[in-house]
């Protein structure tokens, strides 16, 4: 009986490993197109937005602080929060998504 079961197990179909390979390849493609690629595009847009910040732009920081850009330096910006109130932030602290929402209003 055991020899019969082992004989069936060894006479497997050669196309089984091919179908498993195609399944895993399909899963990898789905992960790439639905997870990795959109995240790379989002990072690229964020870097472009930060590079194009100029004086007078209305922005929102990651912490939720709203203000207008008063001065732009290499890696820092000075935001005017209220008349006469200025704060220094890293450029990376500016939120692309929240700033776009603010500009649409």
From TrEMBL:
Keywords: Cell membrane, Membrane, Protein transport, Translocation, Transmembrane, Transmembrane helix, Transport. It is found in: Cell membrane. Pfam families: YajC. Its main location: membrane. It is a single-pass membrane protein. NCBIfam families: yajC (TIGR00739). Signal peptide: none annotated. One of its GO terms (biological process) is protein transport. Belongs to the YajC family. The chain crosses the membrane at residues 16-34. PANTHER family: SEC TRANSLOCON ACCESSORY COMPLEX SUBUNIT YAJC. It comes from Marivirga sericea. This is Sec translocon accessory complex subunit YajC. The keyword Cell membrane applies. The keyword NADP does not apply.
